[in-house]
Amino acid sequence: MSSVEYDGIPGDNVALLHTAIPPWPRRIDFDKGRHHRAKIGFVLLAMEQTIEEDMFRLCPPGVGVHFTRAPMANRISVATLSAMAAGIGDAAGLLLPDEDLDVACYACTSGSVVIGEERVFSELKRGKPKARPTCLISSVMKALNTLGTRRIAVATPYLAEVNVIEQRYMAARGFEIVNIQGLDIENDADMVRVSPQTILDFAQFVDRPEADAMFISCGALRSIDIITDLEVRLGKPVVTSNQAMMWDCLRLADITDRRTDCGRLFQDY
Questions:
Q1: Cβ contacts of residue 43 below 8 Å, gap of 6+?
Q2: CATH number of the domain within which 147 lies
Q3: pLDDT for residue 74
Q4: pTM of the entire structure?
């Protein structure tokens, strides 16, 4: 036997094997592929555990969702969020590097407000120049504006220092934050373990009668599980980070599918 084998065939016979097989007699038929309607890319935090599953749940047929991760410490603080800015563009460049995306999104609410939309968009454009850029706080504010709401109650898992920046950021863009409260959780690994029932109860605690809408901030929270129930209980629209993010990305990609299981935002707009 030859000392070289190819899938069990002696090396000396490989060339003979290939010449003995006739070529495929037909042309190759290419269609538009599984993601023929749109391709959306998300830059996640390195330790993120919730967003990918939520995006797959909310994604309609024919739309591709693609993910990459930027370096980030597990502790969510102003310092650690600020430090990840430069990594956004590098990570975005890894999203389908040989193909264009319709939309590129930085998938972190707190990071968006700490770094700022202008810097985030610049980094996304550096990595994917042809994609429409967006980020989580942009998606949330678009959602709240679309719903016609201005007076907002905000429930978060964050430390107080992050809440202060988020409140100021949204206030500077025309929203009146009637109440904002956090769970004072430092680590993302703990945020992903907050039960949906706790999120539901905490949001009701944070709500105020004068609020036009409830916003549950943070992509790590499993908030999409309780949107419909919470809207019934509060009698007002509920916007969550991941719900708003997918809605915004789809609309930027000219995908207008609606759904009835994820709040008024997806149902009516």
A1: 68, 69, 70, 88, 91, 92, 95, 104, 105, 106, 107, 124, 127
A2: 3.40.50.12500
A3: 78
A4: 0.89
